[in-house]
Design brief:
- The protein is an alpha/beta fold.
- It has a single domain (9-264), classed as TIM Barrel.
- Helix content is 39%, strand content 14%.
- It is built from ten helices and ten strands.
- The chain has helices at residues 31-43, 58-72, 92-106, 124-136, 150-157, 178-186, 206-215, 219-229, 241-248, 257-264, and strands at residues 9-11, 17-19, 22-24, 48-50, 80-85, 113-116, 143-146, 166-170, 190-194, 233-234.
- The strands form two sheets. Strands 3-4-5-6-7-8-9-10 form an eight-stranded parallel sheet, with helices on one face. A two-stranded antiparallel sheet has the order 1-2.
- α1 packs parallel to α2, α2 (58-72) crosses α3 and α7 (206-215) packs across α8.
- The termini are far apart.
- Residues 30-267 form the NADP-dependent oxidoreductase domain.
- Keywords: NADP, Oxidoreductase.
- This is Glyoxal reductase.
């Protein structure tokens, strides 16, 4: 896999190009901080920004986008913006309304990707129908899901008219999600990792540190490179400009097959976040 910059993209199943690495803004609830983080990321070369209605920072993200476009001369079309419909808004009509509310807060005319945030039982199929309608109407460039297990995808695909382009899930070396990854890829669905660094939980891991020293990179950079080389899109979260720049600096080296296997072998099926089969929100 030849990757040389933050602008390198993966082609989704609907032929839309999506950057391999972007900025996540989960738990960045202050709009001013969210705006500054987005501006720092885009100025550092990032083009993918991932938010969600429940993060309560779409307004700040939108402000950051507006300001950085004015400052850099980039166009909206240069960016790839993702948001997600929250569980309480799932259902057909409510999803369409929620999408418009997200657009209004972001100050945008369209999204590049809109996701179902969690597989709410009894609702996600109607929600998907709403996303399909918005997609067919040209209001969204791509649609996908988040936190879906294999059985959720199987159920959705039974009568879906549009195949999700992405399944965004918790994924890191302690939770490699190999069966889900294989199933998703077999159906043309690209895996995208949230919490790709396991909230820093592997920065002192002996294997990761050894590989980092070999490549003269940080443990975070090693883990992010592992994801990308394994064909997984990543959205590490940070509000610090130095860390945002560091996280994006993963395109000037390559992990060997042995490195990749050693990191993958760290899997323990360990979650840091909720279980998609057992959540109550």
């Amino acid at each position: 896999m030849s990757l040389t910059s933050l602008q390198d993209t993966v082609t989704l199943n609907n032929s839309v190009e999506m950057p391999w690495l972007g900025l996540g803004v989960f738990r960045v609830e202050d709009d001013a901080i969210a705006a500054d983080s987005v501006k720092a990321a885009i100025k550092a070369g990032y083009r993918l920004i991932d938010t969600a209605a429940i993060y309560q920072n779409e307004k700040g993200v939108g402000q950051g986008i507006k300001e950085v476009l004015a400052e850099t001369g980039l166009s909206r079309e240069d960016l790839f913006i993702t948001s997600k419909v929250w569980n309480a808004d799932q259902g057909y009509d409510t999803t369409i309304a929620a999408y418009q509310a997200s657009l209004d807060k972001l100050g945008l005319d369209y999204l590049d990707l809109y996701l179902i945030h969690w597989p709410v039982e009894g609702k996600y199929k109607d929600t998907w129908k709403a996303l399909e309608y918005l997609y067919k109407e040209g209001k969204i460039r791509s649609i996908g899901v988040s936190n879906f297990q294999i059985h959720h995808l199987e159920d959705l695909l039974k009568d879906a008219e549009v195949i999700p382009v992405v399944n965004q899930v918790e994924r890191h070396p302690r939770l490699t999600q190999e069966p889900l990854k294989k199933f998703s890829e077999a159906h043309g669905i690209r895996l995208e990792a949230w919490a790709p660094l396991m909230v820093g939980g592997l920065f002192d891991n002996e294997t990761v540190v050894r590989i980092a020293e070999k490549h003269q990179k940080t443990p975070a950079q090693i883990i992010l490179r592992w994801h990308i080389q394994d064909g997984v899109i990543v959205i590490p979260k940070s509000t610090k400009e130095k860390r945002i720049i560091e996280n994006g600096d993963v395109f000037d080296f390559e992990l060997s097959a042995e490195d990749m296997a050693a990191i993958s072998a760290l899997n323990q099926d360990h979650r840091t976040g909720p279980d998609p089969d057992n959540f109550d929100f």
